Amino acid sequence: MLAYGCAVLITLFMLAPVYLIALAALSPTSAIFDYPHVVWPTGLSLENIWSFVTFQGVLPALGRSLVVGGITVVLSLLLGCPAGYAVARYNFRGRDLLQLVLVNVRAVPLIIISIPLLVTFIEWNLYDTVLSVALLHTAITLPFTVLLSASVFIRVPGELEEAAMSLGTRRFGAVIRVVLPNSITGLAAAALFAFVTSWNEVFAATVLTQKSTTLPAQVVSQLSVSPLPFRFAGGLALTLPAFVFIFFMRPYLFSAFRVGAP
Amino acid sequence: MPKRLWSIAFAVAILTFACGGTPPAPATAGAQKNVGQVEFLSSQGQPAKEVQDMNSKVLAGFNGTVDFQSQPTGAQDVDKVLSQHQAGKSTIDVLALQHGDFTTLAAADALEDLTPLLQKLQKDRKFPAQLLSYGKFGSQKQYYIPWLQATYLMVVNKKALQYLPKGSDVNNLTYEQLISWGQAIEKARGEKLIGLPVAPGTKGGLMNRFLQGYAYPSYTGQTLVGFKSPDAVQMWQMLKRLWSVTNAQSTTYAYMQEPLQNGEVWIAWDHQARFADALNKLGDQFTVIPAPSGPKGLGYMSVAVGLAIPKGAPNRAGAEALIDYLTQAKQQAAAGSSLSFFPVIDGVNLTGSDVPSYLSAESAVASKYVANKKSVITLLPVGLGLKGDEFTLTYQDAFTRIILRNEDIQTVLNDDAAKLQQLVTTAKAACWPPDPPSSGPCQIK
Amino acid sequence: MAPAVVFMLVFLGWPMINALLIAFQSAAGDFTLDNVQRLFRDTDFGLAVRNTFLLLAIVIPLEFTLALVMAVVAQSRVRGRDFFLYVWSFPLAISDLAAGLVWLAVFTQHGYLNSILQSLHLIQHPIGFLNYNNLAGLVLAVVLAETWRSISLVMVVVMSGIQSIPAELGEAAEIMGAGAWRRFRSVTLPLLKPTLQVGLILRTTAAFQVFAVVLALTGAGLPVLATKTESWVYEARNYQMGAVYAVLLLLLSTLTTLIYLNALRTPRAVFQR
Lengths: 262, 445, 273
Hints:
The complex is a heterotrimer.
Chain A: H1 2-26, H2 47-53, H3 58-89, H4 95-104, H5 110-123, H6 130-154, H7 158-166, H8 171-200, H9 203-208, H10 215-223, H11 228-259
Helix pairs in contact in A: 1-11, 2-11, 3-6, 3-8, 3-10, 6-8, 7-8, 8-11, 10-11
Chain B: H1 2-15, E1 16-17, E2 37-43, H2 48-58, E3 65-71, H3 74-87, E4 94-98, H4 99-107, H5 115-121, H6 129-134, E5 145-157, H7 175-189, E6 194-195, H8 207-220, H9 230-244, H10 257-261, E7 267-271, H11 276-282, E8 286-289, E9 298-308, H12 316-326, H13 329-339, E10 342-343, H14 357-371, E11 375-379, H15 388-404, H16 409-427
Parallel strand pairs in B: 2-3, 2-4, 6-7, 9-11
Antiparallel strand pairs in B: 1-2, 4-9, 5-7, 5-8, 5-9, 5-10
Chain C: H1 2-22, H2 34-41, H3 45-75, H4 81-88, H5 90-93, H6 96-107, H7 112-119, H8 135-162, H9 167-175, H10 180-208, H11 212-218, H12 225-235, H13 239-263
Helix pairs in contact in C: 1-13, 2-13, 3-8, 3-10, 3-12, 6-8, 6-11, 8-10, 8-11, 9-10, 10-13, 12-13
């Protein structure tokens, strides 16, 4: 019972801002400036959303954000899982140091890194491309992917792999057949994290691109100086694709809970 | 700054008539030969709607394709043009910047002399002599042609008028009267309803302009030179008293129209364009008034935006055609409406269904500034180039330390005067009006 | 292993070293400690440090406690659990910008919170939560907004840790008579240590850098180290000063990481059977 009560309270806390932003984005423009605000819809209006969506450059930027997010997830998993596996299974010299470094690599603000990176990307002719942003996002999410996949792989007992290998498969096959299925949840979490981080990341994207911006960068650069109703619509639009992504990831993310505890 | 950026952004947009764009439809017989793509560079990530309006209401009628581009601040545009000039390769046709940003480029000889174009244009339209002379930067060459201008003013919710202290003329207030007004409101309603744009950063509130162009000149008669003088100390003491009746959430206000619209603030100071949305939608609730005056007069700031052509522009003919187009009366009114700036050409009518009604109200206030015999006009800082942003931040720093953190006024002024001096000396910027002209970098006394 | 390391070295390591070295250079490029001196005398430096740690001290315990509660709730067979979990992941989808926007609309003087309070006649005048001199209000707003924005991530980390604790251990403890709280304390928590360690390190490191929400909600009212850094790099474009702040943040992050590593150390033997 207590558990249920807690759950409800927490859920209300989570939902309230989402509700408010949807409310503001979908109300007539004038409603945003009333005081006191009414917290239930007084009238639905799509004018804010429409003016945001039809604004030039928004839809392409949306597409670009999706592309960048996708590339980031793929690259991050491809590079991160093997590394995580190595950290989990092998006891090599410097492993602890590596873990320390991995974790601390996020300790330097992105802002500082983006300037020298910008220069590098210009030299490599990658300035203002979707790829440059994706590369940086991969680099940002990689540490977390490595560590998370490592902590997930650790929990799959080594004996399972050895059992598979003694039955004739090689290590790589053992990994695919034994380790991965048991780690889907954690890997899903890593993928989710990579996508969402990339999707929401705005500052490096602003610095690294000019014309082919991602959606958040677009919103920041153009809409942050726009009237409030416009920004609410932009804010709502920024969140929708991620909701969709989470919806699809849900089964993998929480499937373990169906198996259930006591 | 957003306003400035607007003009610039606008300009930029217009200039970018890059080659390789979609081929425009063949010009109809009798029309000018299509001038192709013009690359138009301006500064600032301007409000999205303004860009759209510019493109649809102003540029659409142009006989060519304009690619409107913008950078966040004037300093960044200067940076871009300078590096292109040094590389000997310009991609920009028309450049719109406010006066002060052109100085560096003029000094580096990166701009074409537009005297022939000006003479052609003057045959059928009249530019203000003062703006034209600004555009020469003391030489014989016309480096830019004036395009739009703007200023800063105050907007008041009519509900506040009943609390105006007796004997004050709302169109002719002094800072002390403004403070009394704020006190009266607080006493009657228990809330502080004056608002100032104190949000930090170069994309935040324009407090630095308030200090540079309004508070300082009204109390010292100067903008930079008297930064730490005894008159300045008096001004800061006044500001402390004003702050005590100002809404303490002002540290989050970048555009004053929002708190005005939602009622958190009844009296606000800001750039004329940052009121556009509020005045447009809720015009009946508000009235536009001039900023207050101080012991040394009515200090106000004028933003003059001009159009220039960088040396080596790819489409010179297109650029000149665009400048011609933008300085015609009809486009002046349209651009003014889109960007919330005023035209520069004499005789442009700010009436008609296409022009928002608040623009003429703002224009009337601007005329009051000019007509006031005791007014002190200040230009935006001239010649700071890349140091412009740090200059802005130093003023914000002074405000933060003196007003928000309550540090000793003279100490802070001395500290920040040193920083300002260093910036000005590095940028080799001479004094600008209302400060007396200097022969070398401007010196703070 | 190698590809990941190389990748990160190229895209993170190299620029990072590059950028940090600048901290000790003057604009002309010669070595100097001037920037460091300037750091300590910088406007609001002391406030920024205090505020950063204040926020950390409140947000981190709050988030992890909340995440543990959420994880435990999720493990029990509560009705509608799937729905709860889905909703609890929402903030993952919200960007800094949108989060700042929404919470600003809640806490601004004529915003949602004051609207509700005034409609219920609990207050006469709107409360200035975001007033520059209302430290409690500012901290409250930022804590709520920050917690809301990043709790999902912490929740996911904690849950993936809890999920891997073998059920038999809990059942064995129950058979031996341990109550729910005792089971939690003696079985769940100790086995969660590695997860908590990783989560804490990552979250704390990230917390040092949080500035979008702070900027959106408070403007100049609540300076933190990250906003100072951002101001120097993006506004003043003085990369030397920005780099000095970055070095400081790096040192602080490393320090807290070491503390966590030490306090939450788990012998690897625990996981090998």
